[in-house]
Amino acid sequence: MVRKYKKIKFPSELRFDLTSKDWVVIATGRAKKPKIFKKERRVEIKIPKSKCPFCNIKTQEKPLLVYYQGKKIPLQQGIPKNWTTIVVPNKFPAFLPYPKWEKKIEGNLYQTMNAVGFCELVITRDHEKSLALLPIENIKEVIDSYKERYLTLMKKPFVNYVSIFHNHGAEAAASQPHPHSQIITTPLFDIDLRKALKNSQKHFQRNKKCVNCQMNNWERKVKKRIVFENRNFLAICPFASKAAFEVIISPKKHLSNFEKITEEEEEQLAEVFKVVLGKLYKALNNPPYNFYLKTAPCDGGNYPFYHWHFTVLPKTGIWAGFELGARMEISTITPEKAAAYLKKQ
Ligand SMILES: [Zn+2]
Ligand SMILES: [Zn+2]
Predict the structure, then answer these.
(1) Which CATH code for domain 8-99+111-345?
(2) Backbone torsions φ then ψ of 16, nearest 5 degrees
(3) Are strands 161-168 and 180-186 parallel, antiparallel or unpaired?
(4) Taking all residues of the chain, what is their mean pLDDT, rounded to a whole number?
(5) N or C: which end of the chain has fewer CB within 10 A?
(6) Distance from the CA of 51 to the center of ligand 1, in angstroms?
């Protein structure tokens, strides 16, 4: 028997993500209008400035990098009163700078190794102002500190990948409300990175083109999913968005290594962050989000096929069970609608 369907008001579709080779679900039935995202409830953690560990920076480990109004301050000068961005070792690190990388096996079955690596925090001065509300000059300091720390950490033993990420809001796992990013080095690659590297290499070999360059060229041609662009960078809601209002920021040129970013590119990237995070702030009423960097590893390998980028993922999900079980992400708005909505903010 053929079942008859009523006219479908909110079509759902599966879209293929060229970079992860995963399918995502674009199910617009629940979200209705973009404005609905604005009304989502937020959990707020309030910590007064007097009790904030980052406002009281002296309670932290010795700084590794200090900025004051766009300029790096020599460390021997101590922390100036009016510092604007600071990098410190994380007091509660998940990875530690062990002198050796040791592996053990239990019962010829379970493997263990010591979590060797470095954990650092990049903290901006204002207790409340998130990146979206900071001047471009301060955002540039944050980007510059990512680069500077990357260049230092990549030379250390057992540092094969440097993860750089930023959590904003309690739902996005920011345990401290004071704005900060994190840098964590790992001796090994996580499964997503391994997949992304393998897929982009295969794509490059097969098509003689980088998958991100191909996507960027297409997006610039069809103009349906562009949120913002400047001379060096493009911000898009990707065709196979993993979540509503996902934004990918990538250089227009094919560049594999984030740490080689130039001064001019840093400025341009700061502008893109300011615009994109500002649009999300307005469009979704200061949503919780995570952003993270994906770049070629620093394990001594050769990754000319890889294209570095930042992924910004607002937390608007309501489907956690399915996503965890089926490993298939569901976005409740089409990236075309999300991009159009962000563009007009
Ligand atoms: Zn604070
Ligand atoms: Zn490329």
Answers:
(1) 3.30.428.10
(2) -95, 125
(3) antiparallel
(4) 92
(5) N
(6) 8
